[in-house]
Amino acid sequence: MRIVAFSNQKGGVAKTTSSYAMAVGLAKRGNKVLVIDADPQENLSMTAGIDLNDIDPDPEDIDALSPEEQKYFEENVPAKLFEVMKGEKDINKAIIPIAENLDLIVGGIDLASADMTFNDLGRERLIKTAFKKLKKKYDYCIFDCSPALGVVLMNILTVADEVVIPLEPGAYSLQGLSRLYKFIDQIHEYTNDKLKVDGILVTKVRNTANSKIWINDIEEKAELLGTKVYKSKIRLNVSVEEAQTMKMDIFEYSSGSAAARDYDDFIDEFLEEDE
Question: What is the pLDDT of residue 176?
Answer without folding.
Answer: 79
